[in-house]
Amino acid sequence: MTIMAESRPDLIEGCRLPVLLSNGEEWHMAEILSKKEVGGRNIFYIHYEDFNKRLDEWVSEDRMDIGRMELPRKDTKTPKKEGKAVNGTTSRSSSPDRELVNGSAQKQKALVARKRKTVEEDSEALILQPDGQPEPLPKIPRQTGSMVAHHDDIVTRMKNIEMIELGRYRIKPWYFSPYPQELTNVRIVYICEFCLKYLKSAKCLERHLMKCLLRHPPGNEIYRKDGVSFFEIDGRKNKTYAQNLCLLAKLFLDHKTLYYDTDPFLFYVLCEHDDKGYHIVGYFSKEKESTEDYNVACILTLPPYQRRGYGKLLIEFSYELSKFEGKTGSPEKPLSDLGLLSYRSYWSQTILDILLNLKPNEAGERPIITINEISEMTSIKKEDVISTLQHLNLINYYKGQYIITMSADQIESHSKAMAKKLITIDPKCLHWQPKDWSKRGKW
Ligand code: ACO
Ligand code: ZN
């Protein structure tokens, strides 16, 4: 009789069991998604329940509590915790990092759903605002964008690139990205930080760098201040760059699939500048024409630059462009967990700033502002203004009218947040003319 190399015949895909987190301290329920043999030992690709997929990883048996294993449920082949749309706002798990929010991600999901519901329910009430009627909230939007929402399958559900090297950083990818198959077998994928070409070895990169003349993204530099610049890249004119950018971005964007036709998009790439060149920090893409008033399709800050205010800088820039266009805009849905956090924070700060700077009128009466006015001043779409005010719990009904009241605590925490703001866009440094793409026949 032959004994299979398998460590335990019953450890199969779909099993659930507690797994020791990489911090070596806590156990968390996880599902086995795949297994493979490495050096005669089985290792397992696992997804921690209620945590974002970016934490999925390969683990060996010594981190698994096999005694508490549950066999796959009969009714669900690969049970998916993710996948239910929450009123069209988020189509996939928005379970955040452990550091992100206290309490379970489920609570967070329920909260998002509840908040969304409140907005929908209460939008009736807001009709009484002097502005007139806010339109009903958009239903599940059609997915457009340089990436489109995709359905999980076992291949795209698993990270396929172990590590990338980009300029002076080595970065661990968070999600699957459809790089060529041969790159999934190398330990590090080397990416030219200027043209974003991907290479399978350091030697190949070295050879490439001798030939590659770019020291900044292609396209026009449309903004420069305080060591940061924005480049505008046309997805039709610079197709290879745009496709390489999408491939790189997909490593950190879960809820989108690559869409190879980059023609209908513009890409705004944020760079830090030094004597070696312009180093990519992040970007957002934008449809040349959006029927749904989207002013951002995908947005990303590369991990080494995250949590330094660049996400909100990208968002601010996207609204500055909308102001130049004389339009209001909103990000394409669904938003990721971190996307929602960043937008919420930007919207709250921007709106609070306006409210706190309102002056009483000449008669010394309470200042008045309408939702439409806030929306026009900021280019933030009306629905997002309303949801932000509700999220901040600022709207109250008092003696027959809606008023906005702020507690001293709210004012103080807003002042602190503004003081913390590291970097902002100076519209005077934006050299850009919006184009009317509808007149161009073909982009
Ligand atoms: N945990 C907790 N809070 C966080 C985290 C985190 N990991 N990351 C950002 N935040 C909070 C920050 O505290 C900040 O809020 P505050 O100013 O109120 O304190 C806010 O989010 C924004 O922080 P920034 O430093 O400005 O943003 P950052 O540069 O980190 O970029 C972004 C945010 C773009 C969402 C980044 O996390 C990212 O690229 N994620 C992967 C791709 C993604 O999810 N993009 C959005 C998809 S939705 C869409 O494309 C339309
Ligand atoms: Zn290059």
Short description:
25% of the residues lie in helices and 21% in strands. It is α+β, with helices and mostly antiparallel strands and 443 residues long. The longest helix has 22 residues, at 105-126.
Strand order, largest beta sheet: 10-11-13-14-16
Shape: globular
According to CATH, the homologous superfamily of the largest domain is Gcn5-related N-acetyltransferase (GNAT)
User: Per DSSP, what share of the residues sits in E-state strands of 2 or more residues?
Assistant: 15-25%
Helix content: 25-40%
> Over all CA atoms, what is the radius of gyration?
24 Å
Give the class-level CATH name of the largest domain: Alpha Beta
Low-confidence sequence ranges: 77-145
Under CATH, the topology of the largest domain can be stated as Aminopeptidase
Number of domains: 3
Question: How can the largest sheet be summarized?
Answer: 5 strands, antiparallel
Structural class: alpha+beta
Total strands: the figure is: 19
Q: Averaging pLDDT over every residue, what do you get? A: 81
CATH architecture of the largest domain: 3-Layer(aba) Sandwich
**Element order, helices and strands?**
EEEEHEEEEEHEEHEEEEEHEHHHEEH
* Bound molecule types: acetyl coenzyme *A, zinc ion
Q: How would you describe this protein?
A:
With 443 residues, the chain is an alpha+beta fold. It has helices at residues 105-126, 202-211, 239-250, 310-325, 337-356, 371-378, 382-391, 408-420; strands at 16-20, 27-38, 41-48, 57-60, 147-148, 164-166, 169-171, 189-191, 198-199, 220-225, 228-234, 257-258, 265-274, 277-287, 294-296, 299-301, 330-331, 395-398, 401-404. It has a 5-stranded antiparallel β-sheet, with helices on both faces. A 4-stranded antiparallel β-sheet has the order 1-2-3-4, with no helix packed on it. A 4-stranded mixed β-sheet has the order 7-6-8-9. A hairpin with a 6-residue loop joins strand 1 (16-20) and strand 2. Helix 5 packs across helix 7 and helix 5 packs across helix 8 (408-420). Acetyl coenzyme *A binds at residues 97, 99-100, 252-253, 296, 298-301, 306-312, 331-332, 335-336, 338-339, 341-342, 345.
